[in-house]
């Protein structure tokens, strides 16, 4: 049975490396592994095949622009008669901190035009998605948002996003082999803090409070 993972982005060198194209970056990372075919143009997309044991997975980068991503997804679903549990969409998310991953089995588009078009084409939001945080724009209006997602990562951000892409590729393989529930439990689980570290943090905060001058308040800036 074929599974399909679709990384969202915009085609062409103009958009390579932008925040909106982290979905493409995850597909490219996966395509570097062994047993991967070359990319070819199919389903209004660049596609490659990954084979690992009994797993056969289609790696997909739509060649439509972001707002029309659903056309490609619809073609793949129809051609393979693919059940929606065998579809995973990987995309950027301005509502998550830089590099933060979030897996979901279903949900709204959350203002993401690619997800919105996929939902329109499929007639449902019942498909898995893996979101990668690219941080929010400093100004909250449409023009600022567009400029932000089409911008490239700053030098100080690149290491964070490179690690996130690698972790996202690992999350895709968890999904492919064990399903979306296991992927969610693994990726969405908060980082565990040891009891010793919690005690040290508490002591540090206590000492900091003792060193404050009388009347000194906390800053929420």
Average per-residue pLDDT, rounded, comes to 85
Distance N to C terminus:
52 Å
Given as residue ranges, the uncertain stretches (5+ residues, pLDDT < 50) are: 192-198, 208-221
Shape: globular
Proportion in β-strands? 15-25%
Under the CATH scheme, which architecture would be assigned?
3-Layer(aba) Sandwich
Q: How is the CATH topology named?
A: Rossmann fold
User: What series of H and E elements makes up the topology?
Assistant: EHEEEHEEHEHHHH
Compute the number of structural domains: 1
Structural class: alpha/beta
Name of the top-level CATH class: Alpha Beta
In the CATH hierarchy, what is the superfamily? Peptidyl-tRNA hydrolase
Rg on CA atoms, Å? 20 Å
Largest pleated sheet: 7 strands, mixed
Arrangement of strands in the largest sheet:
2-3-4-1-5-7-6
What share of the residues lie within helices? Answer: 25-40%
